User: Which sequence fits this backbone?
C-alpha cells in the first residue's frame, strides 16, 4: 500500500493496539486535531468526576478531616504511580511545587554539597526558565560559579564531545533537559550521566518533555537528581503539581533551601526548631495544592495501564511516519526538519521549520469552512512543533495535519495573518 | 432575655444580616457543626460548578488555547479580588506558590536589600513553619544573622515593649503573624509596622489567620511585605494557591531568589538571559496550578459581597458571645481562656485550654447517638481552637458547641479516647 495515502493512515489506526485509549480522553470539539500534548495533555475522561469527588466529597463533606483521610499522603500516592514511569523507586519521588521551584531546591542543594566546585553546565537548547533558575543561583552564591552552556552546531542537539569539553574538572552540576523542548533531541541518559560523574559533577535531569513520552530509567542510569512537570505527556492538567527525584543514597546528604512545614520531621509537634523529615519528604515545602495535585492520579493510571514500552513503540512509528510524510509532502514546500533524523535521539514531538512558521501556525488554528482546527505550537524563531501523544493521537490526525500544512503553504494562506508578539494559541 | 439560653442564640441568628451567606456554602453532613474555618474554609456553593467549568471547558475544550483566554492572567484576576480585602492596590498583590515559598522569596529579598543588618526578629507564637523558613535563610546566608524570637509572658500575646527590645538596632526584618495561630492574639499592625521602621527593619506580615476574618489595611499601615494562605477564612479550598504583597515602591528594589519563567520580562521571547518582569509579577516563579488557583475566585467574591467591616462586626459579636458562654458554662469545668479578653486584640477564633484538650476534641468529633459532630481543632499542648467564620457560622452553633463541651467534661466522656500522636481530625 502507498504509505503516503490516507488509506495507509486508516489501516495503521485500525491495527493500533493502543487505539482504545483515545476513547479515554475527552474531545469536545469534533473538528479538532490536537498536536500539542507536549505543552498541555488532553483531559482524561475519568478526571472531571474524580476532581469533582475531591471537591464535593473530600473538601465539601470531609472538610478538615480529609487531611487524615488521604490528603497528607496524596503527594506520595501520586509519586507511587509516577515512579515506575521514570524508573525510580517510589521513595525517591515526590510530587510538589512547580518545576522551577523544584529545580531551584535541588540545584541549590547540589551546589551546597559540591562546595568548592565552581562550574555549572547546561546547554543552549535547554528551556530558558531552567537557565534562569541557574542564573539566579549563580547570583545567590555570590557570583562564584560560572554557568557554561554547551553549544549546538546544528540547532537540534548537543554532542557528547561538547558536553565533555564544557564539563572540565570543576563542574558541580550538569543540568539538562532529557528531551529538548524545541527539537525533541533526546540525550543518551546513561552516557551523559556517566560522563558527568567522570568529571565529578552531579547530574540533574529535567524530564518535562520526556516523562510519559519515552521510557525512562533513572535508577539504571544512576541519575542523581531529576525534576519535571506533569501537565504535558502525563496529562495532569494545567499547571499540575510538578515532581522531583532524588536518588535514595543522596537524600540524607542534601538539604532543601526552603525549610517548610511539610518537609519537617514531625509537623504536628509544632516544634520551633526545624529538623528535616527522613527521606524524600524533606524536599516538600508548604501545603500542596490539593485539587491540582489530585488531578494527576487518574491521568497517571492511564499511562501505567498502557505501558511506557508500548507507548514508545507507537510514538516512534508515528514520528517516523510524520517524518516520511514531511519528506514527501512538505520538504518540497520549503519546510525543513528541526528534529533528529535518528529515532533513538528523538522524543515524541517533531519540529518542522519554515520561515513563515508563525503565520502557518495561525492558519492551522484558524481554518476555513470545512477544514479542521489543528493545534500545534510555535517556538521562536521558525519552529512548528507537532506533539504526538501516543496515548491519544491517531495516524489519520498526523496525515491530515500534513495535508493541511501543505495546503496552507501551497496556497499562501498564511498571508491572511499577521505576525504578532504573543504566542500563537 | 437570658443570654445563656438557646432562645438568645436563635434570636441572634434571626437578626443576623449576614445570615443568608450560610446558604452560599455546602454542608453535606446535616448533623455537623464546623468550627474549623480557621484551618480549612467550607466549600462555597458556587465552587464545584466553577471548578468543573475550568476542568471541562477551559482544559477539556480550550486546551492549550486557554492560556491566552484567561490562564495567563488568572493570578492577577484573583489578586484583584483579594486586594480590597487586605487594603492593598491590585498591582501590589499576586497569587502564587505556597505560603512557605512566598515567605522564603520575600524574606530572602528583604535580607538582601538590608544587607549589613544582621538581626531577624519574629516571636515564639509564630506558626512554626514561618520560623523554619527563617532558620533556613539564616543558614543560607552563612549564619551571619541572628534570629531572635520575641517572648510571650502570658502564652497569648507579645507586648510592644518586648518587640522593641528584640528589634534593637541591627534588625533587617521583622516577620510576624498578624493573628497568632494558637491564641488568635492580633497585633496592632500600624503600631508594630511603625516600630519596625523606627528600628530600620522591614516589616513582613503573615496574614494566614487574618485575611478574610479581620479588616486589613496594609497600605494605611505602610506595611512593606505580606504573605498568606487562601484556604482558611478565604475559603479557596485545600492547599489553595497562596498570596504575596509587596508595597509598590519596593517592587523594583527587591528581587526574587527563584528566577522562574512567569517572573521573567518577556517569557515568550525565550531569551536565555533572565530579566525580571516589571512590578509584582517578578515574584512569580513557575507555571501556576490552575485548578487550585481558579477555585479561589468564587470564594473571594463572597467575602467582597459581605464586606470585611460587616464580617468583623459579626465575628466580634460571636467571639464575645462565645467567651460569655465560656465563663458561664465552661470555666467552672476547668477550662481556661487561651485567647485575648480584649476584642481589639483578637482575631476570629477562640482558644479554650484544658488539660484534657486532646481527648475532649476527640469526643467532640465522635458523638454519641443523637449528638452533633463538632469539628474544632487541637493545638499542642492543651488548646481547643474554635474557629468562627462569620460568613457561615451561626450563633446556635456556638451555643451547641459550648453545651457539648460542658457535657463531655461533666461526664468525663473524653475518657473513652486515647491520646495519640496524630492530629485529631
Assistant:
Amino acid at each position: 500500500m502507498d504509505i503516503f495515502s490516507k488509506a495507509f493512515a486508516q489501516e495503521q489506526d485500525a491495527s493500533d493496539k493502543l487505539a482504545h485509549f483515545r476513547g479515554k480522553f475527552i474531545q469536545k470539539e469534533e473538528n479538532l486535531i490536537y498536536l500539542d500534548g507536549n505543552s498541555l495533555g488532553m483531559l482524561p475522561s475519568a478526571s472531571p468526576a474524580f476532581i469533582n469527588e475531591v471537591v464535593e466529597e473530600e473538601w465539601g463533606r470531609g472538610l478538615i478531616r480529609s487531611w487524615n483521610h488521604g490528603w497528607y499522603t496524596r503527594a506520595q500516592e501520586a509519586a507511587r504511580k509516577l515512579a515506575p514511569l521514570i524508573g525510580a523507586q517510589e521513595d525517591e519521588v515526590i510530587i510538589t511545587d512547580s518545576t522551577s521551584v523544584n529545580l531551584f531546591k535541588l540545584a541549590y542543594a547540589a551546589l551546597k554539597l559540591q562546595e568548592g566546585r565552581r562550574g555549572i553546565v547546561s546547554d543552549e537548547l535547554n528551556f530558558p526558565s531552567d537557565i534562569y533558575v541557574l542564573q539566579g543561583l549563580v547570583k545567590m552564591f555570590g557570583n562564584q560559579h560560572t554557568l557554561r552552556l554547551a553549544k549546538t552546531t546544528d540547532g537540534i542537539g548537543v554532542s557528547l564531545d561538547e558536553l565533555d569539553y564544557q564539563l572540565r574538572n570543576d563542574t558541580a552540576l550538569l543540568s539538562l533537559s532529557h528531551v529538548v523542548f524545541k527539537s525533541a533531541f533526546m540525550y543518551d541518559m546513561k552516557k551523559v550521566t556517566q560522563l558527568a560523574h567522570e568529571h565529578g559533577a552531579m547530574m540533574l535531569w529535567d524530564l518535562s518533555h520526556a516523562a510519559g513520552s519515552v521510557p525512562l530509567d533513572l535508577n539504571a542510569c544512576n541519575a542523581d537528581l531529576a525534576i519535571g512537570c506533569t501537565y504535558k505527556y502525563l496529562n495532569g492538567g494545567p499547571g499540575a503539581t510538578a515532581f522531583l527525584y532524588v536518588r535514595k543514597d543522596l537524600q540524607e546528604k542534601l538539604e532543601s533551601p526552603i525549610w517548610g512545614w511539610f518537609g519537617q520531621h514531625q509537623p504536628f509537634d509544632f516544634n520551633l526548631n526545624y529538623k528535616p523529615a527522613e527521606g524524600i519528604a524533606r524536599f516538600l515545602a508548604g501545603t500542596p495544592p490539593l485539587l491540582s495535585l489530585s488531578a494527576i492520579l487518574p491521568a497517571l493510571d492511564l499511562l501505567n495501564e498502557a505501558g511506557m514500552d508500548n507507548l514508545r513503540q507507537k510514538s516512534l512509528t508515528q514520528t517516523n511516519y510524520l517524518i516520511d510524510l514531511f519528506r514527501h509532502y512538505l520538504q518540497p514546500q520549503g519546510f525543513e526538519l528541526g528534529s533528529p533524523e535518528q529515532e533513538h535521539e528523538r522524543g515524541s514531538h517533531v519540529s518542522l521549520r519554515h520561515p513563515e512558521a508563525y503565520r502557518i501556525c495561525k492558519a492551522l488554528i484558524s481554518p476555513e469552512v470545512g477544514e479542521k482546527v489543528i493545534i500545534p505550537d510555535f517556538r521562536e524563531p521558525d519552529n512548528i512543533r507537532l506533539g504526538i501523544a501516543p496515548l491519544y493521537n491517531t495516524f489519520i490526525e498526523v496525515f491530515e495535519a500534513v495535508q493541511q500544512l501543505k495546503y496552507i503553504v501551497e496556497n499562501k494562506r498564511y498571508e491572511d495573518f499577521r505576525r504578532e508578539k504573543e504566542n500563537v494559541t
About this structure: The mean pLDDT of chain A is 96. Chain A has two domains: 6-44+307-416, 72-305. Chain A touches chain B through 85 residues (CB under 8 Å).
